[in-house]
UniProtKB/TrEMBL annotation:
<dbReference type="InterPro" id="IPR050107">
    <property type="entry name" value="ABC_carbohydrate_import_ATPase"/>
</dbReference>
<dbReference type="InterPro" id="IPR003593">
    <property type="entry name" value="AAA+_ATPase"/>
</dbReference>
<keyword id="KW-0813">Transport</keyword>
<keyword id="KW-1003">Cell membrane</keyword>
<dbReference type="InterPro" id="IPR017871">
    <property type="entry name" value="ABC_transporter-like_CS"/>
</dbReference>
<keyword id="KW-0378">Hydrolase</keyword>
<feature type="domain" description="ABC transporter">
    <location>
        <begin position="10"/>
        <end position="502"/>
    </location>
</feature>
<keyword id="KW-0547">Nucleotide-binding</keyword>
<keyword id="KW-0762">Sugar transport</keyword>
<keyword id="KW-0067">ATP-binding</keyword>
<dbReference type="Pfam" id="PF00005">
    <property type="entry name" value="ABC_tran"/>
</dbReference>
<keyword id="KW-0472">Membrane</keyword>
<comment type="similarity">
    <text>Belongs to the ABC transporter superfamily.</text>
</comment>
<dbReference type="InterPro" id="IPR003439">
    <property type="entry name" value="ABC_transporter-like_ATP-bd"/>
</dbReference>
<dbReference type="GO" id="GO:0005524">
    <property type="term" value="F:ATP binding"/>
</dbReference>
<keyword id="KW-0677">Repeat</keyword>
<dbReference type="GO" id="GO:0016887">
    <property type="term" value="F:ATP hydrolysis activity"/>
</dbReference>
Length: 511
């Protein structure tokens, strides 16, 4: 064993993995130093998820080797990886929703009482200490995980990984659903002082530059290179990721006339923390919702689609008052509303089914004959819309849970478009996807609007709101605080409105 190897926290050497004819990883090599935060970058489908699964013990590589602090590392599962000091906060959360916060933190080794049985009291106490240590003392350890928001589940997933990661911590898109990123950054800085190596996967180059010193870029399953971030421009990194120079992901938006018919009319809507919310979305228009965590954006979308009951107000579709009690009712009223949910794992995909089967679910009665649906028929029906969202046809045969997160998101957007609804409600449609996939999603949304469809979307990313929305509505405390249109939509203005200070607002409390 060389002296250089013993100085490394982690060595990944020529790792390869294939699924039948599909090569997921091809001779990937990465070195991590003790106390280093090392970024892993690449488009969706580049192999990042497969490498994370191999390091976490979920998947075995076909060839290659791994070592930690100079000793061979061959995990036989997630639990075995944790016992060897390797833990992962997965992008697709691995929490058990029917168990409590404490049980999720403690498993698989629950504290034991005097008789050797699992002790609920000891588990509560231990979980309380952990939560307090990580700035989450306000969490009740006895709370079922299933009632937590996605952002709180993300925090819990992260905390669980930190508590087991003595040697290697893997953070897979940790801020994709996180409201307070500075909370995470502080934990990462603290963990660095313990000499833990941290592999950080993110599509947000700003936070990568804040935390990481080096980055390894994957493309088409290969490690293209490792760069010192201080000496690499965003343009350099983008070109390494996609094999071409960066280009604008959003072109100039076509203008929409104020005389266009109203597709979705919301009047005095109240429900959850929403209070007296009113706005319109016209045909051919893309309207963005901006809000900090917990300002009513989820209540708005869930109420509009029939997943939550309104206390007051009304919703009109194409000028007709709609009584919406479920997503199915929303879809079949007039020209219809269709919804892309926030969490694709728990609310979107049906794991175990093919991508084509997932895409055609809303129109399955139109696909089959005599009550029988054949895979070939599903693929024929899905093929055209797959092209609209830039989803490769070969993925239609795959089980959807075998796809990267970005390709899953494309499939779910295609499913929403395939419903035939003329108004789409999209909740954070590019959460956790790479720049190339974002471009594909943006182009599909813009094409839908150009064809006369209407889009209402929420985004946690300000540049997305600036470049994609004809109008931007800011929610604050459950109310419309401000509204901006056209050139008035810029990041500085939106940030001000998000914290309760509006300049040049067209409508709302601040007007």
């Amino acid at each position: 064993m060389s002296t250089d190897e013993t100085r490394l926290a982690v060595r990944i050497a020529k790792i390869a993995k294939s699924y039948g004819p599909t090569v997921a990883l091809d001779s990937v090599s990465i070195d991590l130093r003790p106390g280093e935060v090392h970024a892993l970058l690449g488009e969706n489908g580049a192999g990042k998820s497969t490498l994370v699964k191999i390091l976490s013990g979920v998947v075995k590589p076909d060839s290659g080797s791994m070592s930690i602090l100079g000793s061979p590392y061959t995990p036989h599962g997630i639990v075995d990886a944790r016992t060897q000091g390797v833990a992962t906060a997965f992008q697709e959360l691995s929490l058990l929703p029917n168990l409590s916060i404490a049980e999720n933190l403690m498993l698989p080794k629950m504290p034991r009482g005097m008789l050797g049985l699992a002790s609920h009291r000891s588990a509560m106490a231990a979980a309380g200490r952990i939560l307090s240590d990580y700035g989450l003392a306000h969490f009740d350890p006895d709370t079922p995980v299933g009632v937590l928001s996605l952002s709180d589940c993300q925090r819990l997933e992260i905390v669980r990984a930190f508590t087991h990661a003595a040697k290697l911590l893997i953070l897979d898109e940790p801020t994709a659903a996180l409201a307070d990123v500075e909370w995470l950054f502080e934990l990462v800085r603290r963990q660095k002082t313990l000499q833990t190596a941290i592999l950080y996967i993110s599509h947000r180059l700003g936070e990568v530059r804040t935390l990481c010193s080096r980055a390894t870029i994957l493309r088409n399953g290969r490690s293209i290179g490792t760069v010192e971030l201080s000496g690499a421009s965003d343009e350099n990194i983008f070109e390494m990721m996609v094999g071409r120079s960066a280009r604008e992901t959003i072109n100039a938006l076509p203008k929409t006339g104020e005389a266009a018919p109203v597709a979705l009319g919301v009047k005095g809507l109240s429900g959850g923390i929403l209070s007296d919310v009113s706005f319109d979305v016209r045909q051919g228009e893309i309207v963005g919702i901006a809000a900090l965590e917990g300002q009513g954006q989820r209540d708005l979308f869930r109420t509009l689609i029939g997943l939550a009951k309104a206390r007051g107000g009304s919703v009109e579709i194409d000028g007709v008052r709609a009584q919406i009690s479920s997503p199915g009712a929303a879809l079949h009223f007039g020209n219809g509303l269709a919804y892309l949910p926030e969490d694709r794992k728990s609310e979107g995909i049906l794991a175990g089914l093919t991508t084509a089967s997932n895409m055609v679910l809303p129109i399955i009665s139109r696909v089959g004959r005599s009550g029988i649906v054949w895979p070939a028929g599903e693929r024929r029906a899905a093929r055209e819309t797959a092209a609209v969202v830039d989803l490769q046809e070969r993925y239609l045969h795959f089980k959807i849970d075998e796809l990267s997160g970005g390709n899953q998101q494309k499939a779910l957007l295609a499913r929403v478009i395939m419903t035939g609804a003329r108004t789409l409600l999209l909740f954070d449609p590019t959460r956790g996807v790479d720049v190339g996939t974002k471009q594909s999603i943006y182009e599909a949304i813009r094409k839908f609007a150009a064809d006369g469809g209407s889009v209402l979307f929420y985004s946690s990313e300000l540049p997305e709101l600036v470049h994609l929305a004809h109008r931007c509505i800011v929610l604050y405390g459950g109310r419309i605080f401000a509204e901006y249109q056209g050139d008035a939509i810029d990041e500085q203005t939106i940030v001000g409105a998000l914290i309760g200070h509006a300049r040049g607002a067209k409508t709302g409390v601040a007007a």
